[in-house]
Design goal:
Length: 188
């Protein structure tokens, strides 16, 4: 009976990872923009996004944006005097445009209007969670570098060894080598 339970747990984990991979594939043309102020009269995020991207990417064409909108709950101004601005999710015409924009995002820091604006890949909830734990390892100086490419999460350790930690299984295997004392969430 225990053997069968272990087998079912393994199959369930594998299915969750497969579903996550399919969901991430569907996000291959999406980016998230955070830190953009949200005026009360904002009706169309596409114009805001066009302004940001055209300032950093000389090859950008306005038609590269298929859709954009804010995501998340609105801040309650009565509760919070410094409201948090919701992120903007942007669907682009093709993944190649996304990669070009992500390469140009370093120019945001050069523009005084966009110093607090960040452009990132749109990751699934599971991958965002893995990335969060990877950042904790980076802050603890257990790894040298951390980045995402095409929905995959990579780490570089102090010995210049690369780790693809896109799944929870791979993350746990990498953490066992890098920081065995690190506590991973239950179910990983």
């Amino acid at each position: 009976m225990l053997e069968q339970i272990d087998q079912l747990k393994y199959e369930n984990k594998k299915l969750r990872e497969d579903v996550d991979a399919v969901e991430q594939y569907g996000r291959r043309s999406l980016i998230r923009i955070s830190g953009v102020p949200e005026p009360n009269d904002e009706r169309n995020t596409t114009e805001v996004v066009r302004k940001i991207i055209s300032d950093i990417d000389p090859e950008f064409k306005g038609v590269d944006i298929l859709r954009s909108h804010r995501v998340g709950k609105l801040s309650d101004p009565d509760v919070n005097s410094d409201p948090k601005h919701r992120q903007i999710i942007v669907r682009l015409s093709e993944p190649g445009v996304k990669f070009r924009i992500l390469k140009c995002r370093k120019h945001l820091k050069e523009n005084a209007n966009f110093k607090s604006v960040y452009i990132n890949e749109d990751l699934t909830m599971l991958r965002n969670n893995i990335l969060y734990h990877c950042r904790k390892l980076l802050k603890k100086n257990k790894i040298k570098q951390l980045w995402t490419t095409n929905g995959k999460i990579y780490m570089l350790d102090k010995h210049d060894q690369y780790y693809d930690v896109t799944t929870t299984t791979r993350f746990v295997q990498a953490v066992d080598k890098l920081d065995p004392s690190y506590t991973t969430p239950d179910g990983w």
